[in-house]
Design brief:
alpha+beta; three-stranded antiparallel β-sheet; 24% helix; 1 helix
Amino acid sequence: MVYVSCNPATLARDVAILTEKGFEVKDVQVVDQFPMTVHVEAIILMTKCGSDGEK
């Protein structure tokens, strides 16, 4: 799954929930789509582990 967020608070909340549901963060990339501002986009690549922990 690819998760895109512009809000660090909701990103942290949602990643915590998804991790509890069996997802694992594989990669994180921050993109500055709005130069000269404080806004950035976070792109998170997540995978779902199987019920026995297999990836």
